[in-house]
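Title: Prediction job returns without error message
Component: structure pipeline
Severity: low
Priority: P3
Assignee: unassigned

Description:
Job completed but the reporter wants confirmation the result is attached to the right record. Sequence as submitted:
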Amino acid sequence: MLKFFILLISSLLFFNACSIKNPLIKKSKITYIDCPKTLILAPGAKISNDQITMILNKNYSMNCYLPEPESSKVVFEYNYTIETIFNNPSSEIEKVEFIVFVTNKTEDLKVHEETFYKDIQIDISKDEMQESYNQITNFSDKIILDQKLYKNGVKTFLAIN
């Protein structure tokens, strides 16, 4: 009986060690690449008036990848947060533009610009609102660039308006 278990265990180890292709394994088609240097433009980091103040949080994240291994496009995905301070909002929805500028490496030529229009909805009613109310809203957007531009070197700049 002991010999049977030893033979069974050694057989299992031998079969696992062989390079039998597992049909359940799926290879990822996404290839992650290094992200370019990205900065938040100082004048575009904050919007303020009597009713609201919106701040683009500097703790954003950025993922850069090729959607297919031989793709001619590069995807830049931004995950960012906008902090909104409501003083006396005139409406329940505030509109903001998230702007991404892409320049060449020397920053003397703008090669791409994209604007994302966002609505920030107030989470509480006006009756419940105190003197000022802070709200944090998370967003995610992506831009797609030609891989040739990426290989030549780019820098990205972020702003809200």
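Comment from assignee: result matches the submitted record. The longest strand covers residues 73-86.
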